[in-house]
Structure formats: structure tokens, C-alpha cells
């Protein structure tokens, strides 16, 4: 179908449909070849196809200029009034505008214009388009979880009167096939988790294995990333336990030798630790050794060396925050960000996401990720600030606990509302940095590697969409996990 389509507009619709149905991984080379040709073309598109062309190329890593949207403005510099009732064009513009970079004010204007008008036209369109508009206003494509979006779009596309039934059937069959693989992976990881027995020994800690697997699915859901997904789930589950050990249970006297043991990665002084910490260290080192042996079979055991470095850096940031708390010290906003963008876990998880991906990841990529390059720092900012923006975050912490909002309020003498506006703007700017860093020529690091960091940022938008769904997963996250892991698509 891709080879024989002779109309650029039909070709773009086909590419977009394939991607949104979750089938992109089957046709990576064909889509890349098509986008390369489309990047060299220039057409007098209407707003719908101009926006689709822009979004597809930006998603593919092409730095297509945004000034072409100016032709859809009137003499006053505003988007034309006639566009307000074109639902398909508004939706396409809204999705494209979320690919914006710094300095592209026209795309910020586009989000406001399209988003505001979509709310009014949504009740006047076909059921499938209305569903897609509601989905976009809740979570635009750029910021969503690909697997969850594919499941949603299968339902939307099934109601589309001009759907391609061949593509729809393929998407359903593929979705269910991949779901069975995910179920098998989670079954095996759950057996490992139960045999590890740490949940009973660390009864104070959150048991979030399934939620951690959901997180891993957001980083990579494709079948060929099965091993990376398994490794990621195991390690992030152990990170979650370490986080709780530092944050809610261990005393400073206990945590100092615990921290030293992790820094040395040496079991020599383990007998000095409390039993619960000893159990954790033994499970941690054993898990790392098994991963190292597995990767050694293909000459990639060095991946674990980098992961250890990231893990020890994360442990150091946890201790820094404990020391702040013990002294009732309120850091400056800059001090807070310096530590909390590490303690949020995303620099370590960015490194972890590369472990197990095979030869596409090189030593250069690991050296790059450990420097916390702009895309990793932007994802870490999104992680930390989205967490702090949770309406319950300030209420749940005592007056001496640092959050970005509290530190910014104290530093700048502003109200909580003003601080929240500033933090929200920082999240928006971080997304613009990520969009810049995803352009093909932005870095010598393969876009496939950088995409893991992009996906990590997306998972924060998903997990903190309406609340902290990691700490309180019984609502929206539970429903999403059930949709992805339990219920197959009806064929």
C-alpha cells in the first residue's frame, strides 16, 4: 500500500494511520523512506494537510520550519475566523503545535486557537472525530503513551466511516499478539519478584511491580525490546524500594553506611547493616550480576558498569535530601533543582532504558547519557515538576520539606499560584527542549536512543495526568493497565 500510493495526501494519511494504530515498528524503513521524500516536497496544502505534513516530519526528526503556518492568518496576525469551524483542520493543527520548539510563538498561538475552538465544535462532528478530539484535548499525541494511544485509536478508527478494514484487522491482531507477549513477560517478572521476597522484608515500601512494568511499556512496547523491558522493570522496582528506604523509613545513622555500601558496590561491610538493608543489598547485587552475565553473552556486559554509576549517583541524591530533612534545611530553588532532578530518578532511568537494547546502543551513547545532556535534563525537569505540581503534594509534606513550588515561593516572595504558573511554564519549556533534541541533526546519538528519553517524559504526563497515579494507582492507572494487560481487542 505504501509503495503504490501516488498521492502525497493519501500517503500521509496512511503513514499517520499506521503509526497511530501501533503498527509503526513493522514498517520503520518504509515510513522513513516516505518521510524523506515528503520532506523534499512543497505543496499548497489546506490547514489540515499542512499540519499533518508538519507533524509527521517533526515526529520523524525533520526540522521543518513552522513559519508556513503564517499563511493561515489574517491581516491582523490572528488565525482566520473561517478556520474556527473546520474540526479536522483544528485537530490536525492542535496536534502539530505540540511539536513546537523555543521561539516558535506561532505554535503556542496555534495551541490556544485550536484548543479553544475544538471544545465548541466537538459536539457537531461524527462520533469517531468527536472521540479523537476528546482524546487530543486530554492528551495530545506528542505527550502520550504510544501503546495506550494505539488501544484508544483502534476504537476510534473502528467508528471511522472511511476506515481501511485491512489495516484495522491487522492492528487488532497485532495488538492482541503483543498483549500476550506482555502478559508472559509480566508473569515471569512477577515470579522473580515473589522469589526475591523483598516486599515482605521491606514492609514499609510500596509494592508497585505491575505499575513499574506499565512504565516500561511506555518506554518501549515493541516485541523486539522484550529483554530491555524486563531489565527495566526489575531495576526500576528495586529503585522504588530504595527510594522508600531513604524517604520514609531509614534513619540517618542507618542510611549513611547503606549509602557507603552502594557507593562502593562492595559487600565487605554488609554485616554492619540492619537486616532489611542487608536483604535489599543482596537482592540488588545479585540482580545486577545476573543481568551482567546475560549481557556478557553478546559482549555488552559493560552496560551494567554504566548502570551502576547512574545508580550510585541516584543514591547520593537521596542521601542529600535526607540530610536536608534532618537539618530542616530549606534549599534555594537552584539548589533544589540541582539535587531533585537527579533524585526524581530520570537521569538514572534514562541510562537504564538503554541497557538491554542491544548493539544500537554504544559506549558513546552511555557516555552521553551520564553527562545528563539537555534532553535528559528536560525529561528530569518534567518528572520532578509534574510531581510537584500535583495539588496534594504541598499538603502531604510538612512545612520543612522542600518542593519546587515552596522553594520558588520563598526565593522570590511570590504566592503559591504565581509559583505554580512559573513551574508550569518551565514544564512547557522543557517540552520544547525535548522537541529540539529529537531533530535528527541535533545529536550524533541515534534517534532510536533519544526516543527512550522522549518516552520517559511522556510517561510522566500519563502518570501525573490528573493526580499522582503511581502513589495512588487504584484509579486511572489501574484502568489503563487493565485495558493494556487484561482485555484483548475484540476481532
UniProtKB/TrEMBL annotation:
The lineage of its organism: Eukaryota, Viridiplantae, Streptophyta, Embryophyta, Tracheophyta. The keyword Membrane does not apply. InterPro entries: Isoprenoid_synthase_dom_sf (IPR008949), Terpene_cyclase-like_1_C (IPR034741), Terpene_cyclase_plant_C1 (IPR044814), Terpene_synth_N (IPR001906), Terpene_synth_N_sf (IPR036965), Terpene_synthase-like (IPR050148), Terpene_synthase_metal-bd (IPR005630), Terpenoid_cyclase/PrenylTrfase (IPR008930). Keywords: Lyase, Magnesium, Metal-binding. It comes from Acorus gramineus (Dwarf sweet flag). Pfam families: Terpene_synth, Terpene_synth_C. GO terms for molecular function: magnesium ion binding; terpene synthase activity. Residues 194-433 form the Terpene synthase metal-binding domain. Residues 6-137 form the Terpene synthase N-terminal domain. This is Terpene synthase 2.
Amino acid at each position: 500500500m505504501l509503495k503504490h500510493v501516488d498521492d502525497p495526501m493519501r500517503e500521509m494519511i496512511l503513514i499517520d494511520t499506521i503509526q497511530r494504530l501501533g503498527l509503526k515498528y513493522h514498517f520503520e524503513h518504509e515510513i522513513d523512506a516516505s518521510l524523506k521524500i515528503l520532506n523534499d516536497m512543497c505543496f499548497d496544502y489546506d490547514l489540515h494537510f499542512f499540519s499533518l505534513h508538519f507533524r509527521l516530519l517533526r515526529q520523524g526528526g525533520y526540522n521543518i520550519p513552522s513559519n508556513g503556518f503564517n499563511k493561515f492568518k489574517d491581516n491582523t496576525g490572528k488565525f482566520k475566523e473561517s478556520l474556527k469551524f473546520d474540526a479536522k483542520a483544528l485537530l490536525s493543527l492542535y496536534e502539530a503545535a505540540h511539536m513546537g520548539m523555543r521561539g516558535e510563538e506561532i505554535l503556542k498561538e496555534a495551541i490556544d486557537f485550536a484548543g479553544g475552538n475544538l471544545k465548541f465544535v466537538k459536539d457537531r462532528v461524527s462520533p469517531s472525530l468527536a472521540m479523537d478530539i476528546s482524546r487530543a484535548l486530554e492528551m495530545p499525541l506528542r505527550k502520550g503513551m504510544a501503546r495506550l494511544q494505539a488501544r484508544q485509536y483502534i476504537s476510534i478508527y473502528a467508528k471511522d466511516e472511511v476506515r481501511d478494514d485491512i489495516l484495522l484487522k491487522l492492528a487488532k491482531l497485532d495488538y492482541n499478539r503483543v498483549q500476550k507477549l506482555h502478559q508472559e513477560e509480566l508473569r515471569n517478572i512477577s515470579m522473580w519478584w515473589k522469589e526475591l521476597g523483598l516486599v515482605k522484608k521491606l514492609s514499609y515500601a510500596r509494592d508497585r511491580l505491575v505499575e513499574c512494568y506499565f512504565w516500561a511499556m511506555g518506554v518501549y512496547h515493541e516485541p523486539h525490546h522484550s529483554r530491555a523491558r524486563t531489565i527495566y522493570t526489575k531495576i526500576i522496582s528495586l529503585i522504588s524500594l530504595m527510594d522508600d528506604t531513604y524517604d520514609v523509613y531509614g534513619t540517618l545513622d542507618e542510611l549513611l553506611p547503606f549509602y557507603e555500601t552502594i557507593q562502593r558496590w562492595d559487600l565487605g561491610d554488609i554485616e554492619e547493616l540492619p537486616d532489611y538493608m542487608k536483604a535489599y543489598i543482596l537482592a540488588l547485587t545479585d540482580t545486577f550480576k545476573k543481568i551482567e552475565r546475560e549481557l556478557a553473552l553478546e559482549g555488552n556486559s559493560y552496560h551494567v558498569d554504566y548502570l551502576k554509576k547512574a545508580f550510585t549517583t541516584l543514591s547520593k541524591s537521596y542521601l542529600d535530601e535526607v540530610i536536608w530533612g534532618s537539618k530542616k534545611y530549606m534549599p534555594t530553588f537552584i539548589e533544589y533543582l540541582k539535587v531533585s532532578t537527579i533524585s526524581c530518578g530520570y537521569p538514572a532511568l534514562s541510562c537504564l532504558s538503554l541497557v538491554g537494547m542491544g548493539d544500537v546502543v554504544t559506549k558513546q551513547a552511555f557516555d552521553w547519557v551520564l553527562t545528563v545532556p539537555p534532553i535528559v535534563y528536560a525529561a528530569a525537569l518534567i518528572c520532578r515538576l509534574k510531581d510537584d505540581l500535583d495539588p496534594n503534594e504541598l499538603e502531604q509534606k510538612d512545612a520543612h520539606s522542600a518542593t519546587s513550588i515552596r522553594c520558588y515561593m520563598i526565593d522570590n516572595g511570590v504566592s503559591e499560584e504565581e509559583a505554580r504558573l512559573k513551574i508550569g511554564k518551565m514544564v512547557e519549556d522543557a517540552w520544547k527542549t525535548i522537541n529540539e533534541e529529537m531533530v535528527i541533526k541535533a545529536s550524533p546519538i541515534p534517534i532510536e536512543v533519544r526516543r527512550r528519553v522522549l518516552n520517559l517524559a511522556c510517561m510522566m504526563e500519563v502518570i501525573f495526568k490528573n493526580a499522582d497515579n503511581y502513589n495512588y494507582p487504584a484509579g486511572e492507572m489501574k484502568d489503563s493497565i487493565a485495558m493494556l494487560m487484561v482485555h484483548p481487542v475484540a476481532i
